[in-house]
Amino acid sequence: MPSQIMNIGPVPCEENAAQVGRPDYEERSRRECQVFKRMLERLHPVPADCQAGLVIKSFPHDFGSYREVCVRYEDTDPIATGYAFDLESNTPAEWDAIARYELIWLERLEVLNRAVRKGEMSQDDIPAAFHTEQLPALTAEHTFSQLLAAFPLWFSA
Q: From what superkingdom does this record's organism come (predicted)?
C-alpha cells in the first residue's frame, strides 16, 4: 500500500525550536521531537484499525540534517488520511503542562548523565527520580505548577 509522510513540525507551531547549525541542536532537537511526538500521541491518539502513526524523521538541510515529527499514513485508508489531515490542521500551538515538564525533566537527565560521563559526579549522586531514565507518569488534569510540586525537578549536586 502507498505510504505517505506528512510533516507536522519539530515543536508546537508557536514555540521556538532548536536551530540547525547551533552547537546544542542535536541534543535539543532530539528532546523536543521526542516530547512533541508524545504530546501529539496523548492529545490526538491514532484511531484503532488506522494505518497511521507518528514518527520522527531527519531531513537534509544546507547546514546539516534537521528533525521533525511526521505522520506516516496509508493514503488508501480513508481513516488514516483523515487522521493525518486532522492532525495537521489541529496541531497544538503551544506545549501543554505535561510536555513542558517532560522537556525540563529530559534536559535535567542529560545534564546529570553528562556530569557522570565527565567524572563530575558519580552514578550514586543522581537523584532517585532520574535513575530509571523513564519519564514519570503524569496526568493531564494538573497544571505545570502542580506537576512541579508533585514531581520536583531540582536537585543539589
A: Bacteria
Q: Which DSSP string corresponds to the chain?
A: --EEEEEEESS-TTS----TTSTTHHHHHHHHHHHHHHHHHHHSPPPTT--EEEEEEEE--TTS-EEEEEEEEETT-HHHHHHHHHHHHT--SS--HHHHHHHHHHHHHHHHHHHHHTTSS-GGGS-GGGSS-------TTS-HHHHHHHS------
51-105 residue pLDDT tens: 999 999 999 877 778 999 999 999 999 999 999 999 999 999 999 999 999 999 9
| Cα separations in angstroms, 11 against 47, 49, 80 | 22, 27, 22
Start-to-end CA span in the chain (Å):
53
Q: What are the residues facing 68 on neighbouring strands?
A: 57
